[in-house]
Structure prediction request, 242 residues.
Amino acid sequence: MTDTQVVENISGVYRRISNAAEKAGRRPEDIKLIAVTKTVGIQHIKEAIDAGLRIFGESKVQEAREKIQDSRFKIQGADIQWHLIGHLQKNKAKTAVELFDLIHSVDSAELAETINKYAEKAGKTQKVLIQVKLSDEISKYGILKNNLVELIKEIGGLKNLSIKGLMTIPPFFENPESARHYFRELRTLRDNINELRVTGCELRELSMGMTNDFEVAIEEGATMVRIGTAIFGERKYCCREA
Ligand SMILES: *Cc1c(COP(=O)(O)O)cnc(C)c1O
Prediction:
């Protein structure tokens, strides 16, 4: 990967986001691009910042911490946000609250309560998404959709937690059309929860869509797409959730 490649890739991704939004009658600015930087080195992340990206997603707390604390990386005046998109263990919740603007992977009441406790100590309201598992075999993590409303009722009152929406990771399909019904299902779940007024506030965000399927996700209502490979190239190892 050269500098110019990252820059070109980013404009290509923006163009694809715009096209997909237009096709769906949506405004491109309603879709946030989260650049997924797991395994990506500081140099390429800097290039992405120079090219205008501001939201970065990491899967692992430890790896994220090294990057976020790296002084080479602090860019004057750049308002950079970090999101945790991978599974969070309770024993890393304290660090996660220190590091992340948004945690996409809350999937149990215990985890939510732990995050809330550390957020309270830090004097912060932690923004989170609930990760939903739409089918049993597709992913290790996430709350099963049948338990979602109950979970939100349970944690909706936590004072230092702000639930912003839902996240899901469908299985990988060669043909992204095969993922469409998962995306549609997540949107329906969100809309139903809002209609039932399960929480005091409206859930707006749908974090769904990766390199292989983000256009379909946008057509189905994604407000955040999490894109690594299409920006930074193939990762050295294979992982979707690690
Ligand atoms: C790695 C990862 C992504 C990005 O995947 P690409 O296919 O490289 O775009 C998105 N979401 C999660 C949760 C990931 O772990």
